[in-house]
């Protein structure tokens, strides 16, 4: 396995883990809207959502290349 393949594997694993966290976080908000208003929800999870969106941009870029 070449170094590029290993790096892409690690990158894809990290992306999958982050997307899974975002999925469960979003489901938590959907099922508990009354307990978690959007203002507190966004401030608590803003960083992880932003990081995941940034990784999605890189994922599109790597797919094009």
Automatic annotation (TrEMBL):
TM annotation in the entry: 9-31
UniProt entry keywords in alphabetical sequence: Membrane, Transmembrane, Transmembrane helix
Protein name as catalogued: Uncharacterized protein
Species of provenance: Plasmodium falciparum (isolate NF54)
């Amino acid at each position: 396995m070449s170094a590029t393949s290993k790096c892409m594997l690690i990158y894809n694993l990290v992306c999958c883990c982050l997307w899974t966290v975002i999925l469960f976080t979003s489901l938590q908000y959907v099922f508990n809207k009354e307990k978690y208003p959007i203002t507190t929800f966004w401030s608590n999870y803003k960083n992880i959502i932003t990081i995941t969106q940034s990784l999605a941009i890189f994922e599109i870029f790597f797919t094009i290349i």
